[in-house]
Amino acid sequence: MNIRYLQAGTEEFHDSGHHVLVMGLLGERGRYIYPGLTEERVKKAWDDAFIEIAECTEDYIIISSELFSMDLHETLDLERLRDSFSGYEIRIVLVLRDPVDFLNSVYAQRVRDGYIGTIEEYADQIWPLLNWKTLVNHWRSVFGPANVITFRFEHLQRDQLADDFIRRMFGWDYEEPRLPNESSNESVPHCAIEFFREINGSNLSEELKAELRNSVHGQITAEPSGLPRPNFVTEELKAKLLASCEWPEPV
Question: Which of 226, 225, 221 is CA-nearest to residue 184?
């Protein structure tokens, strides 16, 4: 069995995700993801993707971005994705995380990217997305129940995330780790996220704000800090989130 992680569409972001492909599906609505990218560059990413897919000799190809689930809200968006791969056999894999842990993580990332609001304000903005049953059923309605696979993030082996994912997804039976487990998205400590939010709300230029965030982020994640991980979810918000987030039924 041969598996390829698609390279086209990964050059623009530091985490090797295919976020630019999501931008292409959203059109003008996706410009906010990376305002500096031209329409031509986004289109070229999709053109390059299909060229690479056509020339690929591997049995399976993986395309991955958290923005597929975060930003493709409309049924038409999902249908556009489905129709883009007409003629190919597609499986959608949704890795679902404890909603409290997820909200803390995604909020910290948004502050890292320049967001200035509180976690309550951010939760209000994405609240419809924080029900896993609704999310999964939406994808199942477009791609078919048998074509949408769900994993629980907490069940993956954290020190071998990529290997464990491959084992579970493809039934690739091997014991020794074969894939690197280096993360390009190390957890930033709570105090650093608080600092970023203060910077984001300051009168500094946007260029200097980004430079400060990038500098602190690079230095503080270069080695384990031992500082507490981000935890902004209050007990009240936690109770509300756990009460409203439903988990999908297995297929």
Answer: 221
Strands 60-62, 3-5: pairing kind: parallel
* Residues in a beta bridge with 94: 150
CA distance 192 to 232: 12
Cβ-contact 101, 215 below 8 angstroms: no
Amino acid 80 reads: R
Provide the Cα torsion 177, 180, 183, 184; round to 10°. -170
* pTM for the full predicted model: 0.87
Q: Which SS3 state, helix, strand or coil, does residue 59 take?
A: coil
Alpha helices by DSSP H, listed for the chain, are 19-26, 39-55, 67-71, 75-84, 99-112, 119-126, 132-143, 161-170, 190-200, 206-220, 235-244
Q: Average pLDDT per run of 10 along the chain, which is 251 residues long?
A: 89 87 93 88 94 94 94 94 94 95 94 94 95 97 96 85 84 70 67 95 94 90 84 96 93 69
- Cα–Cα distance for residue pair 59/174, rounded to 1 Å: 18
Q: Could you tell me which residues come within 8 angstroms of residue 206 by beta carbon, excluding any fewer than 6 positions away? A: 114
